[in-house]
Design a protein that fits this description.
mainly alpha, two-stranded antiparallel sheet, 27 helices, 4% strand, globular
């Protein structure tokens, strides 16, 4: 259905960003806060109105905002489409974003750059909404680059601190590596199809090699934006920004862009089953890799950062195995409990005057009851323990991986050989191990922070944050529970009122089906049983090692394997490895180019060299023009004699 108001959803936060950025320094704080909050509230209301109007007859709303540009055969319109997938993401982005804006009023109120902060937040939301609503790859790329820019601005918000400024630059540069692949993927699709529209791409048939090349290039962009191996290294360092920024980036917005992009192009990826296998494998390896590192982090925000990387791996397992509904469902539930965890960690840091080391916390349950309760609810959700939402969404991904048929006809060799029927069960096993580690490190985080006795300095008196910061926590905690409705198995809610809210039922027909077909009907009960055992086993491991003994228990675990624990605490030395393999050689190469090509050849030979030659010729010529009349007469006489000799004697 054609409408003419869809453009307001990204436009309103863009206007809010402009007002806050250009005039916010001189506006009263109350006015600025009102503008920033309304710039997100109104798009939420418009998105909710449109989402509720979706039906079988009007399954999407579309608006052609304007004809953007034409270049050769490329005609790009700035068009927006709101359907069941993008509509749900609009509600998540604006809803969670609004709660983070409210929370930020209390968190950033005393900072001198509060007006810059809210301008960046509004701009971030505008860019993310453009990414979600864009009806073609170029429009999506505008939002894609916009959230990359805003992440740089927000992560490096306190830019006078070199460490925080470095983290912002790191996020920006690493994302540019992935974005190069994204651009190449767009070029390939346009060269083959002559269009960048999602609707036309998803109804086209491409040769296997073209579809595979385009899909793998686009996935390279997703590995950067959604922090997958090997481009995940920017995300843990993004903790340098304010805590609400961490919640905004890590929960519902930027990092989920890659998952959303693959789900939106599900028909393209179905045509490239080999690439789907790569997506699933990378997701599984990322999930276990980040979970291992997360077990040994002591910074509360770093634990949550590696948790985000790991959970994103689960989402890629979902879309990589052809269970696009499962991957996007976990995207939504993850937004609620991860935003709650980050904001709760922010209240902990706020109440401890900036302390982030969990070894210096402990006993905060009595000082911060609201923070403790909401952190506990979100922890239960992420660790996959009934009855909260994370259990159903994460277990659905693992169940779909175990029963997938997406890889049944793939072989290791082009000529045949054994089919990769074992790949799904292998991914399931890796994902289950990652779930066990997730349960352990999240309960470790909870016990070290809130249980036992307070271990911080006596000069710091922990206290609960104001209501403007704790109310968003309770809302997100409630959503972490209520979101279980969308994840209930479809067969459980069939022919009941809950079927309307079931995500698998709600998105039926939106995503392509793997070439081998959807998995056959299977009972979810065995998988649920295994998932419960894994979740409780992780809790028990953390309880008996951390809850009873606190930091002493953590030190005892370290003493049993000091080398391994040190390696994990140092992030498996990935940054050092990248520095040795990539950064240092590039620095050396760049320095060599500067010294040889720039300084010696360009500057030395062409620029300064030519100038020096002319200056030397001029200096030589000046010797004959010194104003000495007798020398001029002598030179003239010599010249005349030479001419006489040439014309008279030689002639």
């Amino acid at each position: 259905m054609e409408v003419n108001w869809l453009h307001l959803i990204p436009l309103l936060p863009l206007i809010g960003a402009a007002i806050c950025g250009l005039t916010g320094k001189w506006l009263p704080k109350a006015w600025l806060y009102t503008i920033a909050l309304m710039a997100v509230t109104l798009p939420f209301c418009i998105g909710a109105y449109a989402f509720l109007r979706l039906s079988e007859e009007a399954n999407q709303f579309h608006e052609l905002a304007f004809n953007w540009f034409s270049a050769g055969g490329l005609h790009v319109d700035m068009g927006f489409t709101l359907d069941r997938l993008s509509g749900a993401l609009v509600l998540v982005v604006t809803g969670v974003g609004l709660l983070i804006h409210f929370y930020s009023v209390g968190y950033i109120d005393e900072d001198r750059g509060y007006w810059r902060y809210f301008s960046y937040l509004n701009l971030f939301v505008a860019a993310m909404l453009t990414l979600v609503l864009g009806d073609n790859l170029v429009a999506m790329f505008v939002g894609w680059e916009g959230v990359g820019l805003c992440s740089y601005l927000l992560i490096g918000f306190w830019f006078t601190d070199d460490e925080k400024a470095y983290a912002g630059r790191k996020a920006f540069i690493v994302n540019r590596i992935g974005d190069f692949g994204f651009l190449i993927g767009i070029f390939i699709l346009f060269n083959r199809l002559g269009t960048v529209s999602f609707a036309q791409i998803n109804t086209s048939v491409l040769p296997l090699e073209v579809a595979s090349l385009a899909a793998i290039c686009l996935f390279l962009g997703a590995t950067g934006k959604s922090a997958q191996l090997p481009l995940y290294i920017w995300l843990p360092d993004a903790m340098a920004g304010p805590t609400p920024v961490s919640a905004l980036i890590h929960a519902a917005t930027m990092v989920t862009a890659g998952v959303y992009m693959i789900a939106r192009l599900s028909h393209l990826y179905i045509m490239a089953p080999g690439v789907m296998a790569v997506v699933a494998i990378v997701g599984a390896l990322t999930a276990i890799w980040a979970a291992l590192i997360g077990t040994s982090q002591n910074d509360i925000k770093k634990v949550l950062a590696y948790s985000t990387v790991s959970q994103l791996g689960y989402m890629f397992i979902g879309v990589g195995t052809g269970a696009f509904f499962a991957g996007t469902m976990h995207l939504i539930t993850h937004a609620f409990f991860k935003a709650c965890l980050f904001l709760a960690s922010g209240t902990v840091i706020h109440g401890l005057h900036g302390e982030q080391d969990m070894r210096k916390m402990g006993g905060l349950r009595s000082h911060m009851p609201s923070t403790r309760a909401t952190f506990l609810i979100a922890t239960i959700a992420i660790t996959g323990i009934l009855p909260f939402s994370g259990f159903f969404s994460k277990d659905e991904i693992l169940a779909q991986a175990l029963h997938t048929k997406a890889f049944d006809f793939l072989t290791l060799t082009p000529g045949g050989g054994s089919h990769l029927t074992w790949l799904g069960p292998l991914i399931y096993a890796i994902g289950s191990l990652a779930a066990l580690l997730t349960s352990f490190y999240m309960w470790r985080c909870y016990f070290l922070t809130f249980s036992g006795e307070y271990r911080g300095p006596e000069s710091v008196h922990p206290h609960e944050s104001p209501a403007i910061m704790t109310v968003p926590l309770w809302i997100l905690a409630a959503l972490s529970i209520l979101a279980l409705v969308i994840g209930l198995p479809a067969e459980w809610v069939r022919d009941t009122p809950l079927a309307t809210f079931n995500w698998e039922h709600f998105t039926h027909g939106m995503f392509a089906t793997p070439r081998s077909g959807a998995p056959e009907e299977f009972s979810p009960l065995p998988g649920f049983g295994i998932a419960l055992v894994i979740g409780w086993l992780g809790w028990a491991s953390a309880y008996f090692s951390m809850y009873r003994h606190g930091v002493a228990g953590d030190d005892a675990v370290t003493a049993k394997a000091p080398g391994l624990r040190r390696t994990l605490a140092n992030k498996l030395y990935v940054d050092e490895l990248y520095g040795w393999l990539i950064v240092r050689p590039l620095w050396a190469f760049a320095r060599g180019l500067w010294r040889v090509v720039d300084a010696t050849i360009i500057d030395g030979l062409f620029v300064n060299g030519i100038a020096s030659l002319i200056a030397w010729i001029g200096a030589m010529a000046r010797r004959f023009q010194n104003g000495d009349v007798q020398r001029y007469a002598a030179v003239t006489a010599v010249g005349v004699a030479a001419l006489v000799y040439v014309f008279l004697v030689r002639g």
